[in-house]
Amino acid sequence: MSRILVTGGLGYIGSHTVVELMQQGHNVVIVDNLSNSTIEVLEGIEAITNTKPCFENLDCNDYVGMERLFNSYPDIDAVIHFAASKAVGESVEKPLLYYRNNIGSLVVLLELMNAHGVHNIVFSSSCTVYGQPDEKHLPVDENAPIQKALSPYGNTKQVNEQILRDTAHANKSLNVVLLRYFNPIGAHPTALIGELPNGIPNNLLPYVTQTAAGVRNELKIFGDDYNTPDGSCIRDYIYVVDLAKAHVKALQRMLHGECDEQVEVYNLGTGHGVSVFEIVNTFKEVTGVNLPYVVVGRREGDIEQVWADATKANAKLNWKADTPLADVLKSAWEWEKKLRNIAE
Ligand code: UFG
Asked: What is the pTM of this model?
């Protein structure tokens, strides 16, 4: 049985991945500083898996604390590094916070992995590295050009990828898998864990479910004059549980020595583009709940359309994100109802 260190393991994608790892028999150690999560998530994980994972309330930038952790768990086989700040707008206001949290923590981790003979890391990257791909690159595969980042957040993901490549180049025993996520949505089918946005949500789905719950008055749709079939932006919305399962597959591939390259890159998406209006209409259809919305101007920095060519992940990881959108949206609504104590 392998021992996996999961940083940010109480966050949205981290917690769903911890559940899948535990259900596949891995021993997990979670590191999380609760900056964008709560300790109740640990109870959710325990309720789903019937096991309490090891948890350390630690900041990945705390070198001394992290060193103590590596000493306490000398059997770590691999790291999955989720811990990061992730709000695009906030990163524009507070760039240094993002450079410290997202760049500093990876450097600390890699130094300690090196010192403690840990040779495997799976890293949370983002489709943001592709910016707005040209039409000829849609759907976007892993070889599409990387574009200049539009925010400090996006830049941290690009720099993180480069740091991992440089470190792997210098240390041939280090294996790296870069997972470029498209738009994760939904919650665990048990409704025991899900997304917990801080304050007013920036992302579409939590805004939709909070509006449906009456916490927000109306959803603002950012633009209906894009060059897309219905005028709203198109994204590749991937079920968070499907995304979590891809991490387990990537990890197993690594631990079994099956990687073709020292640094492997995978796009994780469904391969289908869905517009904002399609999300809104499908949500209303499957939940039967009223969802007031208003179309407003475009949001600065938004990409018009992007969706994944996930052929490589489908083939090499033997994985596919195939949960129907209707089920995913239902799971998001079940979670919101649970959070707000809303009956049927
Ligand atoms: N949207 C609305 N109203 C809202 C929120 C979002 O219309 O209240 C629209 C956006 O304009 C966009 C779509 O819904 O067209 C999705 O927006 P999100 O904010 O949910 O997601 P983004 O695609 O903008 O951002 C996500 C991640 C980022 C990542 C980026 C990469 O949240 O971390 O993908 O493209 F950098």
From this structure: 0.98
The torsion angle over the Cα atoms of residues 90, 93, 96 and 98, rounded to 10 degrees, is 10
Please write the tens of the pLDDT for every residue from 237-257: 999 999 999 999 999 999 999
Task: Please give the distance, rounded to the nearest whole angstrom, from the Cα atom of residue 233 to the centre of ligand 1.
Answer: 9
Which domains, from first to last, does the chain contain? Answer: 3-184+239-268 (3.40.50.720), 204-235+271-340 (3.90.25.10)
Q: Which residues are catalytic?
A: 153
CA of 203 to the centre of ligand 1 (A): 5
Q: What is the pLDDT of residues 49-108, one digit of tens each?
A: 999 999 999 999 999 999 999 999 999 999 999 999 999 989 999 999 999 999 999 999
Q: Whose CA is nearest to atom 35 of ligand 1?
A: 128
